[in-house]
Write a structure and sequence with these properties.
There is one protein chain. 46% of the residues lie in helices and 16% in strands. The radius of gyration is 33 Å and the shape is elongated. The longest helix is centred in the first third of the chain and has 34 residues. It has a seven-stranded mixed sheet with strand order 10-12-11-16-15-14-13, sandwiched between helices. Helix 5 crosses helix 7 and helix 10 runs antiparallel to helix 11. By secondary structure, it is α+β, with helices and mostly antiparallel strands.
Length: 571
């Protein structure tokens, strides 16, 4: 769309580009709105980096806890193993040190250049010639510039430059106003004032900042080097709109005259270019034509379209709009729950669906629709899948332990579906996954519409490594579909999984549930408890998820669920 854009809007394409470069540095929320920032976010990377620097003794630690049901006859046991950061701590440290070193060197180079220009500023004096001041004032009036802009004269520069954006200053070589002809002096002032009008000082500073941050990225550096040329082309076009066609050759000639001596600084905008850039500007002047109203509208529409396309590349927005990280509550009758005291300082959500009334009761809806790793709660559907494919059966779900040392003594024995579900035995479900294969698992996830339906190449812990994700709302929907068997599975298999999930009698009903814990570098950072309660005339489906720096495990989620069901639902 380059031919549709005016020179000014071509230059202002740097704005959406700057926004794109800023995305990794956006916080998790701003202006009161929470965004599910992509995994490339600097903040998530730094969090993983800090965790990866924990002492080696904190790595690969197993976790176990329990929560007793209300009748004291059943125990909900929660077992979890730690999933370490993908990159070892020393590699993170090397990468961070490498980036800091390069950024520091680049910053020092800019400080050196800025200091040199600062000395030039200190040696400059205000433009005092009355006729030159009058000429400059007339140019300000012609461009409708009302704010005060000072002009300085310096013997240490060879071409005019403009610096600053809050308080712009124009610097011209000593005696240049005497050497230049009247029309050339007018062109010079008009050009430099255009830099002030367009806030080019701000763009220059942003270019410097992003060159420091992205010093290692040749694609970014290449674009940042093109921005000054686009800036000068835009300024030339703006000046030409104030000139007659007869003045165009004279304006071009003045550029050539000033190009004999060049002075440039990264935080300054000047009238003079060199080499191929000067050639581009001269060609731009010779081909300049005033745009009619139709051409102006086409230019604006093209710019907006490019900006929208650029916005679609922003991970923080595309992740939100693409429903990879969140789901919708559209079409559901909801009621807000206030459970902050029940969560005991943990962040998280609670969702309860009453199948009799069709009402969804939700605590923290913004988190209830956000997807997280399901941890061991996925084993509900892993068990159903294994049953459906005949790897195990309701009558024969026995698997022999192969003698491989495990994180927990209760895992180091032969297992059945009932024991493997209650003790969350990883090897039992991993054996089934190996027999099923990645393609079959992916097909099953699509069949039951499980969360984001994404699994990693490694089938060992895809339910805990941030590849497979699901929200609390989706957990409840799946439980309802599981209970009513909308999956069109064998009723015998559905019942076998239900039996394995049975916890015991609870407040006048029967409680079924499965815990799950995400451990990172020995710390419990996310806990689940999902399930349902059968009463004589109703079924209540629930999902509790908690998040924290540590101790946020499945047993805590189960304890919170018990408290909520007892105090706010059944009583």
């Amino acid at each position: 769309m380059k031919n549709q854009l005016s020179p000014g809007l071509q230059y202002y394409l740097c704005i959406p580009y700057f926004i794109l470069l800023s995305v990794p540095f956006l916080p998790l929320s701003f202006f009161g709105f929470s965004f599910p920032v992509s995994r490339s976010s600097l903040f998530q990377w730094l969090s993983a980096f800090i965790n990866s620097l924990q002492p080696a003794s904190a790595q690969n630690l197993p976790g176990i806890s329990s929560m007793t049901a209300s009748d004291s006859s059943s125990v909900i046991r929660d077992f979890a193993v730690s999933v370490n950061s993908a990159a070892p701590g020393h590699w993170n440290l090397i990468l961070l040190s490498f980036w800091i070193t390069g950024a520091a060197i680049t910053l020092l180079l800019f400080f050196h250049i800025t200091w040199k220009f600062h000395k030039i500023k200190c040696g400059a004096s205000l433009l005092e010639k009355p006729e030159s001041q009058k000429f400059f004032s007339d140019c300000c009036t012609e461009l409708h510039i009302r704010r005060k802009i000072l002009v300085f004269v310096s013997p240490q520069i060879h071409s005019p430059v403009t610096t600053g954006f809050l308080k712009p200053r124009i610097f011209i070589p000593a005696d240049l106003d005497s050497v230049l002809q009247t029309h050339e002096l007018r062109y010079m002032f008009l050009h430099e004032l255009q830099h002030c009008r367009r806030l080019d000082g701000l763009v220059n500073n942003l270019c410097i900042m992003f060159r420091i941050i992205y010093w290692f990225n040749p694609a970014v550096i290449l674009v940042l080097k093109k921005i000054p040329l686009e800036r000068e082309l835009a300024c030339d076009a703006s000046v030409l709109t104030h000139l007659s066609a007869e003045d165009y050759p004279l304006y071009g000639a003045s550029l050539l005259n000033l190009a004999e001596k060049l002075s440039s600084y990264p935080s300054a905008s000047g009238m003079v270019s060199k080499g191929s850039q000067l050639r581009r500007r001269i060609l731009g002047i010779t081909s300049f034509r005033h745009r009619n109203r139709k051409q102006k509208w086409k230019s604006v529409i093209s710019y907006l379209l490019i900006s929208v396309l650029t916005a679609g590349m922003i991970p923080v927005l595309s992740a939100y709009a693409g429903s990879e990280e969140t789901v919708s509550l559209h079409g559901k009758t909801t009621e807000n729950l206030e459970l902050s005291t029940d969560f005991h300082g943990f962040d998280g959500s609670f969702v309860l669906y009453d199948s009799q009334t069709g009402l969804w009761k939700i605590y923290r809806p913004e988190l209830a629709i956000q997807r997280f790793s399901p941890a061991s709660t996925f084993k509900i559907y892993s068990a159903l899948h294994g049953l459906e494919k005949g790897i195990i059966s309701p009558e024969s779900s026995f698997m022999k332990w192969d003698g491989t040392p495990c994180a927990f003594p209760r895992w180091e024995q032969d297992q059945t579906l009932d024991s493997a579900m209650k003790d969350s035995v990883n090897w039992y479900f991993q054996n089934m996954d190996q027999l099923l294969g990645r393609t079959e698992i992916s097909s099953f996830l699509k069949k039951i519409n499980y969360g984001n339906k994404q699994i990693s190449k490694d089938l060992k812990l895809y339910w805990a490594d941030d590849s497979l994700k699901i929200s609390a709302v989706e957990q409840v929907e799946l439980l309802q579909n599981f209970y009513t068997n909308t999956f069109d599975c064998s009723e015998q298999n559905i019942q076998a999984v239900k039996d394995a999930l049975r916890v015991g009698e609870f407040s006048g009903g029967t409680l079924y549930g499965k815990t799950g814990t995400i451990r990172r570098n020995g710390r419990d950072i996310s806990g689940w408890f999902v399930g349902f309660v059968e009463t004589d005339d109703n079924v209540l489906y629930f999902a509790a998820n908690i998040q924290g720096a540590d101790h946020a495990d499945g047993s805590q989620a189960a304890a919170i669920t018990r408290s909520v069901l007892s105090s706010k639902i059944f009583l």
